[in-house]
Amino acid sequence: MTQATDIPGRKPDGAWAHLLHVLRENPVTMLSFGMFAFFLLQAFFGALIVPHDPLATNAANALQPPNWTHWFGTDSLGRDVFSRVVVATRLDLTISVLAVAISFVIGSVLGAIAGYWGGWIDAVLNRVLDTIMAFPLFVLAMGIVAALGNTVENIIYATALINIPFYARLVRAEVNIRREAGFALAARLSGNSHFRTLAFHIFPNALPPMMVQVSLNMGWAILNAAGLSFIGLGVRPPTPEWGIMVAEGANYIISGHWWVALFPGLWLMLAVFTFNLMGDGLRDIVDPRRRT
Amino acid sequence: MAGRTRAIGMRLAQTVPVIIGVIVISFILTRALPGDPAVYFAGAMADAESIQQVREALGLDKPLVTQFFLYVGDLAQGDLGRSISTGQPVLTDLAARLPASLELTLSALVLSCLIAIPLGVLAAVRQGSWVDHLCRVLVTAGVSLPTFFTGILLVYVFYYLLGWAPSPLGRLDFIYFEPPRVTGFYLVDSLIAGDLETFAATLRQLTLPTITLALFTLAPIARMTRAAMLQALSSDYIRTARAAGLSRGKILFGYGLRNALLPVVTTLGMVFSFVLGANVLVEKVFAWPGIGSYAVEALVASDYAAVQGFVLAMAFLFVTLNLIIDLSYALIDPRIGFDTK
Prior knowledge:
The complex is a heterodimer of chains A (about 290) and B (about 350).
Chain A: H1 14-25, H2 27-49, H3 81-117, H4 119-133, H5 137-148, H6 152-178, H7 182-189, H8 194-202, H9 207-230, H10 242-253, H11 259-286
Helix pairs in contact in A: 1-2, 2-3, 2-11, 3-4, 3-6, 3-9, 3-11, 4-6, 5-6, 6-9, 7-8, 9-10, 9-11, 10-11
Chain B: H1 2-31, H2 37-42, H3 48-58, H4 64-76, H5 90-125, H6 130-144, H7 147-161, H8 186-192, H9 196-233, H10 236-243, H11 248-285, H12 291-300, H13 304-332
Helix pairs in contact in B: 1-13, 5-6, 5-9, 5-11, 6-9, 7-9, 7-11, 8-9, 9-11, 10-11, 11-12, 11-13, 12-13
InterPro entries (chain B): BPD_transp_1_N (IPR045621), MetI-like (IPR000515), MetI-like_sf (IPR035906)
Family (chain B): Belongs to the binding-protein-dependent transport system permease family.
Membrane topology (chain B): Multi-pass membrane protein
């Protein structure tokens, strides 16, 4: 399959015009980009703008329902839930961004090598990926964190490892169908090494579908990391993190203190929702034919 | 017929490398423990002598390859080690708790299939209508919902606010007796015992966790049903059936749905992977005494033998489920050859 990509020099506004067109056609995608900016803002400046110290306890002020001083109420130790929710954004996004970045890089390298050279490397890689996929992925992540030790870094590694198969398979397929394509052979004939051909001529074609995968995967990585800390792995109290805050709030929901669990859960849900909507939107931009 | 037997044989043979891989990964996980595995397996109360005992018992003083074969030998005898917190062999613990998890998982899957498949069919038939939009919203919201959070919300609304649901503590309210154990599924066992009251109580406890899990699995099944149904409805045989003047119901269900179901069955394999993971979280929220909450308790207590046993058991369960799905696929679809994949 040859792709008619925009040539930057000749049609400078082609890609932008298409992007603007898609955004105008699909307000939901626009909304998702807006929400993404909202979360980025919290991640970068959250710690500076929150009204209270997220770690400051105040027993006299425990379990206050939402009011004007504490917009999201206070938890069992009197900490301000709003400040904690906002500050937690950075940690949650960092975990998932790092995890997705690691699986993106490792998956790309493995997939590109297997797709370009094929043969026994390809066969071995496929077997290994099959084996990883033979585990229920969240359960495998639990096992890895339990074995490596209960730290935030290991949460990142575990989340990265269970996502590698998705990237490796995607890149392998995209590289494999272009291995013998005219432009790849031309690049070889004009004296590029195998590595150069693979890295600069074939691999960039896999990037658009990879971007879609990254966005969809980010949501899943956040869910996964929050799930792990919900069951008590990785992040330790009193660090603010959405999963552990929901877990703490779960103890108070039966007595009607809904705000302790609701707001971190809501933020978590919104973040995942944003990435999923963005993934769908990016898919429309990248490949209009695959729209569902 | 010979072709099909061969295909099934091939599929069975394909599981062998996967199982070997699973065992290798699980072996690596047991040996990857930071520090000395013997210290972890001996437990917190162990002294130097018992640690040495454990080291010899586990064969940790031998070369790695020998250790691997010892490990495989133990597995073949069903020996997953002993749990520190319960004092029981891990396999016994898992076997005792597995029915609780399976009852929850299976009822959730049945419920979500009952909702998702009609929804997906309707969305495909009435493309662009409100049902289609509802389906799309549900699908995107469904994959964004953290299961543990949905569970907590449902508890708040239906237990605290409305008082419809019983307290989210386990499989059966403490005022009822467990039904005599035959299958381990309380729903089935209470029916066998003819105890309708216990059956109703079990059902009440089961409702909220089942809905929580079902909401989560709804999305992929509905999405796949819609896509498969759209593809089936646009194919030549449907056009022919329409041209031949068959009734609408016959076309939709006799031809369309029957063909669309095949990819849906395949998706179930992937859904199982998610469900088995989500199960752990839901069990923690509802204090459900299944293998998921067993693993969580073991994690908190640093009970490594129990955790590794759990991971391995889940992997075997998942491989078996996938095998059953693929084999049933071969029985449903007469055209099947596994080599077409």
